[in-house]
Write a structure and sequence with these properties.
Blueprint: H1 6-22, H2 26-33, E1 37-41, E2 46-52, E3 61-64, E4 75-79, H3 81-88, H4 94-100, E5 103-107, H5 109-114, H6 116-119, H7 122-133
Parallel strand pairs: 1-4
Antiparallel strand pairs: 1-2, 2-3, 4-5
Helix pairs in contact: 1-2
Length: 139
């Protein structure tokens, strides 16, 4: 269930963020919640910062694969690419992963946890994507 490369991980995560941003229900709710987040994935040496779009920016979410962004995250989460993959397939409980320290957090963790019910519909869509295009990632 490992990603073939950091490039594959980034491409898959871009698709997940795109799914959430463009979803008619999830996207506007995530934009309204406006909880800037930083995700670090040490095993693939990648960091992504995600925030709600502003003004006339397209979509509902904006993300950059860099720490060089003009905003500060309200919450930071560090995890492996494998943990992220399991989470988006609905097979990793975030609260339990935080308790086990397979996800390390800082900042306003409660704000991030409040987003979980909003993002839950992405699990089935991601599982379908994995089954169709990335069967080696099935958890």
């Amino acid at each position: 269930m490992a990603f073939a490369s950091p490039e594959e991980f980034r491409a898959v995560m871009d698709r997940i963020f795109g799914m959430m941003s463009s979803d008619e229900e999830m996207g506007p709710r995530l934009r309204e919640a406006d909880v800037p987040q930083r995700f670090a994935f040490a095993d693939v040496d990648l960091v992504v910062n995600v925030r709600a779009t502003h003004g006339d920016e397209p979509g509902n979410l904006h993300w950059e694969w860099s720490d060089d962004v003009p905003w500060s995250p309200r919450v930071t989460m560090a995890m492996s690419s494998e943990t992220a993959n399991r989470y988006f397939q609905g097979k990793e409980n975030i609260a339990m992963a935080i308790a086990r320290r397979s996800i390390r957090t800082s900042g306003d963790v409660s704000a991030a946890l409040e987003l979980l019910p909003i993002t839950k519909p992405v699990f089935a869509r991601y599982a379908e994507l994995v089954a169709r295009e990335y069967p080696h990632l099935e958890a």
